[in-house]
Write a sequence for this structure.
């Protein structure tokens, strides 16, 4: 909810304009677009997500600004989740970072408030933890995440400076994490220290060892280190999507299995919130609207790109890295525009197939499909209204918005032939019959062609109709401020025989 300051502050950073706020003036906060540095003799002190103030004292040499404040403290799902992971994928391990990366980085206590109570690991320093054991378990968790994303997946190290293009010479700075008593409205915050170009984190004590918070914030700092999505308003909301993708991948993915075990960490429950992803699948694919948007929950799309069950070119293990690296610098394009270059399949086909697979959450994620099976009775599938004569139309409030979808489970009895026919569509779409064998769990997908499809569905199979709003080329949109173009929902009529919604 606080990402508007990300956009504003990053834009200031990009422009290199450092007009200063007076002593006691505001220097940060949600929607703050004024100066983010303070007059000499004062320091910008984070107060809450809505307000940072220039306080007398300190030094402005390590001027910092709240860059991203994240991780809601409320929990959204109480359902039991599966925590075991069967590792069936092969993990490729590549050496991380540059060849000159030292085994141990250097701490810089002037990044963030510093302090005398801290614990170190090779790449991190934790200040102010309530116990040595809490600090050490956070350090092991963070090293596990570092080893996965920087080591296995080859992301740019946050030990390198944002301000520096010559990576081989370091500076190889540890990431400082401050364990604190409270952060109004947030469990964790990532800050950027503009002088050094290094990130630092604050996490509330009780969340320090919780990967959904601390690895999420570390995800922001790795994303910051990638540089190319920074300073771009249209990538702003995607920061939360990426950070939750990082936390979930760290927790669940076979890609991180070696890294986790190196630091004594186990796979844990997925962060997936299918009540939101499926229940509100009609929303714009990444919607940064405060309170009602999906930008924290939309990360399964990024997991789909990573697991790449459809074998699209350019995607797979390196999908996110490819998206970061091939982002057209300073273009302010959206990540879907980059995706259209990263994979020759094109964003529309990829998004259409993603939603077809989200019918049964068969996206290659190790445990999300099990969460789906245990929770599916709770999801809001009330997408269509009957028009009579087997014709249905989407409810006006649930018409698929830009790159969103309707997922419609169909009821049937025994073995049937299901025929669907779409007409009167107001926008380009991709529609699919998603079919699942209830005995084996295997899925198959029958794409509508020329607006219709017909499929024999056996008695031990189930079927859903999925339709996604997929324009032929990506739309430039800011997820924090949705335009009428992307909010314009796909209207259509669908005639369904052999089964009913
Ligand atoms: C930030 O700006 C948006 C758009 O003007 C507004 O809806 C929102 O309430 C503002 N937030 C705060 C905390 O002022
Ligand atoms: C620190 O203060 C000095 C004196 O006002 C100013 O020249 C300098 O730009 C400030 N540095 C930052 C990073 O704000
Ligand atoms: C579904 O899976 C079961 C168990 O693997 C298999 O025996 C059956 O033939 C499958 N049904 C269809 C329609 O493929």
């Amino acid at each position: 909810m606080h990402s508007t300051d990300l956009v504003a502050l990053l834009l200031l950073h990009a422009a290199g304009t450092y007009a200063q706020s007076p002593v006691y003036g505001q220097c940060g906060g949600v929607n703050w677009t004024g100066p983010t540095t303070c007059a000499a003799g004062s320091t910008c002190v984070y107060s809450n997500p809505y307000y940072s103030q220039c306080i007398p004292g300190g030094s402005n040499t390590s001027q910092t600004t709240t860059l991203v404040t994240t991780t809601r403290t409320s929990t959204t799902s109480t359902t039991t989740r599966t925590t075991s992971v069967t590792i069936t994928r092969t993990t490729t391990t590549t050496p991380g970072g540059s060849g000159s990366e030292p085994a141990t980085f250097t701490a810089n206590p002037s990044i963030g408030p510093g302090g005398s109570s801290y614990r170190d690991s090779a790449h991190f320093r934790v200040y102010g933890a309530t116990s040595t054991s809490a600090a050490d378990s956070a350090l092991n968790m963070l090293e596990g995440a570092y080893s996965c994303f920087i080591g296995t997946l080859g992301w740019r190290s946050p030990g390198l400076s944002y301000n520096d293009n010559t990576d081989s010479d370091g500076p190889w700075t540890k990431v400082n994490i401050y364990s604190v008593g409270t952060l109004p409205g947030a469990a964790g915050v990532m800050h950027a220290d503009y002088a050094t170009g290094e990130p630092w984190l604050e996490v509330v004590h009780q969340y320090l060892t919780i990967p959904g918070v601390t690895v999420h914030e570390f995800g922001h700092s790795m994303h910051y280190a990638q540089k190319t999505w920074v300073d771009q308003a249209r990538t702003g909301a995607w920061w939360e999507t990426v950070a939750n993708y990082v936390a979930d991948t760290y927790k669940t993915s076979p890609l991180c299995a070696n890294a986790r075990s190196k630091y004594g960490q186990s796979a844990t429950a997925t962060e997936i919130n299918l009540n939101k992803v499926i229940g509100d699948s009609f929303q714009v694919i990444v919607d940064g609207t405060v309170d009602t948007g999906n930008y924290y929950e939309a990360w399964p799309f990024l997991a789909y790109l990573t697991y790449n069950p459809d074998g699209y070119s350019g995607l797979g293990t390196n999908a996110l890295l490819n998206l970061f690296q091939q982002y057209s610098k300073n273009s302010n394009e959206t990540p879907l525009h980059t995706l259209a270059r990263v994979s020759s399949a094109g964003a529309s086909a990829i998004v259409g197939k993603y939603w077809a697979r989200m019918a049964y959450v068969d996206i290659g994620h190790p445990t999300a499909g099990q969460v789906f099976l245990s929770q599916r009775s709770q999801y809001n599938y009330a997408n269509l209204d009957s028009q009579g004569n087997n014709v249905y139309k989407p409810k006006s409030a649930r018409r698929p918005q830009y790159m969103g979808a309707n997922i419609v489970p169909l009821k049937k009895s025994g073995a049937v032939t299901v025929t669907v026919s779409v007409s009167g569509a107001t926008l380009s779409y991709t529609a699919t019959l998603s079919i699942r064998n209830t005995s084996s769990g295997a899925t198959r997908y029958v794409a509508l062609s020329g607006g219709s499809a017909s499929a024999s569905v056996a008695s031990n199979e189930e079927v859903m109709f999925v339709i996604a709003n997929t324009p032929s080329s990506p739309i430039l949109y800011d997820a924090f401020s949705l335009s009428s173009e992307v909010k314009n929902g796909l209207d259509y009529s669908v005639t369904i025989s052999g089964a009913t919604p």
Summary: The mean pLDDT is 86. The CA atoms of residues 71 and 187 lie 6 Å apart. Residues 18, 37, 40, 60, 63, 195 surround 2-acetamido-2-deoxy-beta-D-glucopyranose (ligand 2) (CB under 6 Å).
